[in-house]
Write a structure and sequence with these properties.
The chain is built from 3 helices and 5 strands, in the order E-E-E-E-H-H-H-E. By secondary structure, it is α+β, with helices and mostly antiparallel strands. The chain has a domain of about 50 residues. Strand 3 and strand 4 form a beta hairpin. The longest helix has 17 residues. The protein is globular and about 35 Å long.
Length: about 90
């Protein structure tokens, strides 16, 4: 995934907070998604068009995590969102 590409949530899903997690449901797919605290934070950031490297910078500021590790984890998470049709490229 290109770090300079703008991305955003592909859809608003019905969701409910569950402690630090966020439980979401895709009616179209008939699936539930449970995002942990960091995944939930990334989902919040993706409300507006952003770049993957911007997400990494934001999380590094908010959490005590090395940049390299954060970049790998964010990339993995974004690939999963894309796999389930929850992430879209923005022109």
């Amino acid at each position: 995934m290109a770090v300079d590409r703008m991305i955003q949530r592909s859809a608003e899903l019905p969701s409910a907070p569950l402690g630090n997690n966020l439980l979401m449901m895709s009616v179209d797919q008939g699936k539930y998604f449970n995002l942990n605290g960091v995944g939930r934070r990334i989902w919040e950031i993706l409300e507006y068009p952003t770049q993957p490297d911007t997400i990494v910078r934001q999380l590094v500021e908010e959490y005590d995590v090395p940049v390299e590790m954060c970049a790998i984890e964010v990339g993995d998470f974004l690939r999963k969102l894309r796999k389930y049709g929850l992430l879209a490229d923005v022109d």
